């Protein structure tokens, strides 16, 4: 099963970044290209099993179900239920960790966070490479770049 992965270091503490990202329903606030995002039943955005509905370019619909939410580990997992991309069995994960170690320059050390966004997925052989790149570069890296600007 292929995996797409992107990461970034943000200029904010892991606790600050997680307090923002722990809301599974707020993707439209920070993810470029997502026009609207709601939790379908209006319930809590950190409830296991809630489904977020995202509307993207050209009214494309993405529906994703929260499968794990770990405040202590600053992470959540989700699965894609519906999307316009030729992928199946998508299992995503977003995780925030503190940057640790001695301060050795202006861009390292405490007070910063490391954010990882990844997914395992299935696609037809002819689509696998392109979909891996789309998820990694077009979605995850783009989203993390937007978060880096937000926490600039």
UniProtKB/TrEMBL annotation:
> Which Pfam families would you find in this protein's record?
Polyketide_cyc2
CDD domains cross-referenced by the UniProt entry: PYR_PYL_RCAR_like (cd07821)
Q: Which Gene3D superfamilies match?
A: 3.30.530.20
The UniProt entry, under InterPro entries, shows: Polyketide_cyclase/dehydratase, START-like_dom_sf
- The name of this protein is SRPBCC family protein
Organism in which the protein naturally occurs: Actinomadura sediminis
